[in-house]
Design brief:
about 20% helix; single chain; alpha+beta; five-stranded antiparallel beta sheet; globular
Length: about 110
């Protein structure tokens, strides 16, 4: 018998998908963090400094931050700051307003 502990499997992509805008708003307004993909590009939602930030996924190299979708240096256009989920639902993700596609994006990870 194998006694090696195994980690429980996470949710499926379908289980993590937002079923409605209301579900998304409740998650984000309650402090939930989200990583998602739309049209092959990755985005993150987090809560630094007591506000909500949505932006293109990024990485650091040689002391600079880069947009992981374009490999260009990260700029202010790569993110949006807001105080509510409604604020960030206006963010442009790969040419679409997040509000219009939030129930269709592939949620890679989410809390709450």
């Amino acid at each position: 018998m194998n006694k090696t502990p195994t980690a429980p499997e996470g949710n499926s992509l379908e289980e993590d998908r937002f079923q409605s805008i209301s579900e998304f708003k409740q998650c984000v307004n309650d402090g939930g963090e989200v990583e998602f993909e739309w049209k092959g590009n990755q985005y993150t939602i987090c809560h630094p400094e007591g506000r909500i930030n949505i932006g293109a996924a990024c990485y650091q190299s040689n002391g600079k931050f880069y947009n992981a979708n374009t490999n260009q240096e990260y700029t202010a256009e790569d993110e949006l700051w807001g105080d509510t989920a409604d604020d960030i639902l206006e963010f442009n993700v790969s040419g679409d307003r997040l509000r219009d596609v939030i129930t269709q994006v592939t949620v890679l990870d989410r809390t709450i």
